[in-house]
Design a protein that fits this description.
The structure holds 2 protein chains of 2 kinds. By secondary structure, chain A is of the alpha+beta class. Chain A is built from 2 helices and 7 strands; from the N terminus they run βαββαββββ. The mean pLDDT of chain A is about 95. Chain B contains 2 helices and 8 strands; from the N terminus they run E-E-E-E-H-E-E-H-E-E. In chain B, a hairpin with a 3-residue loop joins strand 7 and strand 8. In chain B, helix 1 packs antiparallel against helix 2. The longest helix of chain B has 18 residues. Classes of the chains: A alpha+beta, B alpha+beta. Chains A and B meet through helix 1 and strand 5 of A and helix 1, helix 2 and strand 7 of B.
Chain lengths: ~80, ~140
């Protein structure tokens, strides 16, 4: 089991009503894709926007196959609206 | 050739533009300003939230990528954090190039990439109800 915290921002944080979500995943070596899947279940208000979102791991955009560790800083980057 | 980026608290109005290099043939400036309406509702401002320091670092990386990809002479990208009122400037992209074409192409590419990837979010401040989520 792996425990992870995922930071939320902007409208996704508003939708969930929290600035982060704590996840418990069944994997030992988890990937970003698994984290996104777990987020879908743990935070249903994110369901609509999560397919167009990515994770940032240690402040860098990550790919679905990239690994995540419990000590990483993980953030959901979706619905961005800069400019 | 130079590329730099910075995020400022509040509006960008009054921040001076760079001085162009003597070899520059074209200077392009794009300013994003706060419209008075959002989704047909009147607003007074937009609150910008940034994921720090990732947002500023990514703006700098985009500036350097634009410099190389389009053969520009200089790029400066500025963005606001926090509250920016209607009519004020929240984003400024300054591009210097030898000819206009590469500058115009770089402008489109930079803004499209910013809006897709850079972790910056906005919340309109509606007249009636205060801050709200992006529609």
């Amino acid at each position: 089991m792996t425990h992870l915290d995922v930071r939320l921002f902007g409208p996704q944080a508003d939708a969930v009503g929290e600035r982060s979500v704590r996840l418990t995943l069944p994997c030992e070596s988890c990937t970003c894709a698994q984290v996104l899947d777990a987020l879908r279940t743990a935070a249903p208000p994110l369901a609509e926007s999560i397919d167009s979102s990515r994770l940032a791991v240690n402040q860098r955009l990550a790919d679905p196959a990239d690994p995540v560790r419990p000590t990483d800083e993980i953030a959901l980057v979706g619905m961005v609206s800069g400019g | 050739m130079s590329a730099n980026a910075r995020i400022f608290d509040g509006p960008l109005d009054g921040i001076p533009a760079p001085t162009p290099h003597p070899a520059v043939g074209a200077v392009l400036v794009f300013e994003g300003r706060i419209r008075p309406t959002e989704a047909a509702q009147t607003i007074t401002a937009i609150d910008y939230e940034t994921y720090d320091p990732m947002a500023e670092r990514m703006l700098g990386e985009l500036a350097r990528q634009a410099l190389e990809k389009f053969g520009l002479l200089a790029v400066q990208a500025l963005h606001s954090r926090g509250r920016v009122g209607v009519g004020q400037c929240s984003f400024r992209l300054w591009i210097a190039s030898t000819h206009r074409r590469e500058g115009l192409d770089a402008m489109d590419w930079f803004i499209d990439t910013l809006k897709r990837d850079v972790p910056i979010w906005k919340r309109p401040v509606f007249v009636e109800s205060g801050a709200g989520a992006t529609p």
